[in-house]
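Hi W.,

Here's what went into the run:
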Amino acid sequence: MSPGRRRRPRAEGPGEILVVGSVALDSIKTPYGNVEDALGGSASYFSFSASHFAPVRIVAVVGEDFPERHRETFQSRGVDLSGLETAAGQTFRWRGEYTVELGHAITLETQLNVFSTFHPRLDPKHRAMPYVFLANIDPDLQLEVLDQMEDPRLSVSDTMNYWIARKPDRVFEVLRRVDVALLNEEEARALSGEAQLVRAAGRLLEQGANAVIIKKGEHGALFRSRDELFITPAFPVSGLCDPTGAGDSFAGGFIGWLARSGRHDADALRQALACGAAMASLAIESFSPERLVATTPGEIEERLTTLHKMVHFSLTRPFEANS
Amino acid sequence: MSPGRRRRPRAEGPGEILVVGSVALDSIKTPYGNVEDALGGSASYFSFSASHFAPVRIVAVVGEDFPERHRETFQSRGVDLSGLETAAGQTFRWRGEYTVELGHAITLETQLNVFSTFHPRLDPKHRAMPYVFLANIDPDLQLEVLDQMEDPRLSVSDTMNYWIARKPDRVFEVLRRVDVALLNEEEARALSGEAQLVRAAGRLLEQGANAVIIKKGEHGALFRSRDELFITPAFPVSGLCDPTGAGDSFAGGFIGWLARSGRHDADALRQALACGAAMASLAIESFSPERLVATTPGEIEERLTTLHKMVHFSLTRPFEANS
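Here's what came out:
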């Protein structure tokens, strides 16, 4: 997306998307219920979300204990698992809890297991993918992926406070190399040192980012590049259930639409932001990615229509004589 | 605005607006500077903001110490002060401080002075006004004003946590009687008992409000009625200086545009929300209402254009064959 970068001619149909991230077994408790060893992980949420828009291939690792039924869930959405390595040992596990405000997870336990020694190895098919999402894994692994990619049309990264605290320089290196960096509010504040989010985004651009998206939970998301600033509200869910995976599902809708449309102009980016908001809202209406897997084109389009209606106004010039 | 209510035919030109609230002397400290005994108060910020759109009349009280130069500031914007009572004693004073995040004021001192015995007395001219804003004064005073009004086309209230904590029933009574109730995030959460703001707005409607606007600071504002839900982002200010009066200035832009346009349809309400966001952004770029007084039609329209550009996207149907 950067100006002057060589781009391959656009292929027919939606561009394929590579995601490198975690596939995990999550145990989650919220005020609305709980699950044990449910399918989770950033690459999982991302894939289910993006798969509604374009073909997705996962590069990740699971342990020998990874249930066959979870593979079937991926297959039901046409997600390619040829890059899902099975390593000796246990699958990455996360145990978390949300309090009644559902704002932030309290991590009770993280078992990296097979993830602790994971290094993404991309085969030629993966290297040639036009769209790539680097989920919130170690920035060193994100850089390993970027080094292996041929020349993606669009690269997007995510991160987490854990890495910002431990490897800020590497997080910045990723930020400078990708086309769009996704962060949540706290991450944007921590990384930029700015409290106010539009300014935080501006500061990250000064620090070398090409474009950033700040995810603001119930307040929506903002996109900022040198030329553009736009904002989408969150889709107002009535049945908020489990916020896990909202950010990855947002990323799936965002990249999904860009890959499907093959466009990266300002209007496509705005539409992509709305697709992100729609998919995030679906993710949080059920435990695990159930709702994301089951949703339909009609349902997604309905949410886009609602979001459009929520923000659209006809521009007025209040002080013209005929106003 | 309520369905079935009798409405007078619309007069020519912008409708006149009555505001009942405080006119104060503010001493404020922020990380960017400080002022002593500056012109402040909810009615002041509201008036300066709304005066760019429509004629404004104030009903309020000041003490004998109220400086003549502040009256001149109101007159420079054509604000009618015939309802500004001068009582024996000192003007209402507020002393506050903002920390670096500029989110919330810490009140250091409040001297009610002449405000402590204030009862708004409306003359026939005030009673006949088509638009009325009840700023964040005691809900009992707000009800006194409503009782005196003839049949306003649109009534809007504001409140504060102080009254929600002390007189929740009266705050609810105001909410049920006005067309639109303005609240900030904390007030909406406190009054509705709901943490998530779209739900908080929904709960307030269930509790009898006709329509609510929740002001979310840097995250913008949301409007919710039985039929409508829309959202405006905050205008991204580069030179945030002093957040005092942002909410009242928002209200001034909101009611100002409705009074100017004479329309209350969904599109006018959306435009009004954007006008509110534009005026709030101007208010916070200087200490005291300086910037609001000095701003120009061109500057306001420029901010509306920016806000429009920030949120607008062309609605796509991602899954249509021709997408």
